[in-house]
Specification:
Elements lengths: L1 E2 L2 E2 L5 E3 L8 H9 L5 E2 L3 E2 H5 L3 H5 L10 E6 L3 H13 L4 E6 L4 H4 L11 H14 L4 E6 L9 H11 L4 E4 L14 H7 L8 E4 L5 H11 L3 E4 L8 H12 L8 H19 L1 H8 L3 H4 L6 H8 L5 H9 L4
Parallel strand pairs: 3-11, 4-6, 5-6, 6-7, 7-8, 8-9, 9-10, 10-11
Antiparallel strand pairs: 1-2
Helix pairs in contact: 1-11, 4-6, 6-7, 9-10, 11-12, 11-15
């Protein structure tokens, strides 16, 4: 799959943009373990318009994270155009527009998935962003606002005509949030539409290599995007590609590897954000890193009370099962 000048190879597996998850430290770890393309946390165009430092910092990344897309969201044509220009100045491989975020604080302000209820504004924003930058522009969206308005088939053609170079579809409506099972049938319909010539990336409920291979084979998508299943589990990218390309079933990482990678992740988080914030933001990953280990809940609770890297390192290095 090729987006712009970036060749992502055959059967690429991508890390989804996740707020408060896909920061620089985690993106680095996922790239080391096989993610073919990673994205920043979504960046508010309105916050950039107000020159908010926190939002500007979300666009920063290391070359080790490439290829990378910066994702922006908003409901104003002017603010989104401005955000795209600022994002391009950071020189990512692409700029992604979020038309799919379902969370209340975004959708109730007319951004994210709310644009699925205002297609003319969605297209105005897309046209403005495409014209404002030289980098490839892509879109991530959902099937529609609710069960009665699954508009993705028509919207996909309009977004392509507006100039986007790839489309990611999450197989749920906004009303579903993250509940129920993702419906990939409409993703497949978009991919197999003879009018669609841009890459179509499927997203939703990919939690294992077997599931990823099934979605590739059944629906013919150009790439798979993995979100929540990657939290504390960066190995899912390498293991997915090993299964898809060679039918190899990777063994679960041994305890020592889990410890070493989690500590590497923690070190990167501290380097980027300082010890206190790095430790706090790492906490959401431990359940994934040590999933399935008997008795780890007690150890995790102990880790959550520690406020220095050395204390956490001592606890993890002394784990014995």
């Amino acid at each position: 799959m090729i987006i712009g000048k970036t060749d992502l190879g055959e059967f690429p597996v991508l890390l989804a943009p996740l707020e408060d998850i896909t920061d620089s430290a985690f993106r680095n770890i996922c790239r080391l373990h096989g993610a073919d393309l990673v994205y920043t946390e979504f960046v508010s165009s309105e916050a950039l318009f107000r020159a908010a430092v926190k939002s500007s910092n979300k666009m920063l990344f290391d070359d080790t994270e490439r290829p990378l897309g910066i994702q922006i969201f908003g409901n104003s044509v002017e603010a989104m155009r401005n955000a795209a220009v600022l994002a391009e100045a950071n020189n990512p491989e692409l700029i992604d527009i979020n038309f799919g975020c379902p969370v209340r604080k975004v959708a109730m302000k007319g951004a994210g998935a709310a644009l699925l209820k205002d297609i003319p504004l969605m297209l105005s924003i897309t046209n403005a962003v495409v014209k404002a930058v030289k980098l490839p522009v892509t879109v991530k969206t959902r099937l529609g606002w609710d069960e009665d308005s699954k508009v993705i088939a028509g919207v996909a053609e309009m977004l392509q005509d507006a100039g986007i170079q790839a489309l990611t579809i999450h197989g749920r409506t906004r009303a579903q949030m993250y509940a129920g099972e993702a419906d990939w049938t409409l993703i497949g319909e978009v991919k197999n539409n003879p009018r669609i010539h841009i890459p179509v990336i499927g997203n939703g409920d990919i939690d294992s290599p077997v599931k990823a291979a099934e979605m590739f084979n059944r629906y013919g998508v150009d790439a798979i995007m993995i979100g929540r299943a990657a939290i504390g589990n960066p190995w899912i990218f390498d293991s997915t590609k090993a299964y898809i390309l060679r039918k190899e079933i990777a063994a679960l990482p041994e305890l020592n590897e889990r410890i070493q990678v989690s500590l590497q992740h923690l070190k990167l988080a501290i380097q980027k954000k300082g010890e206190y914030k790095g430790i706090i933001e790492m906490r959401k990953h431990y359940a994934g890193y040590f999933k399935g280990l008997p008795g780890f809940k007690k150890v995790r609770m102990e880790i959550l009370t520690r406020q220095s890297f050395n204390e956490i390192e001592d606890i993890l290095l002394n784990l014995v099962y």
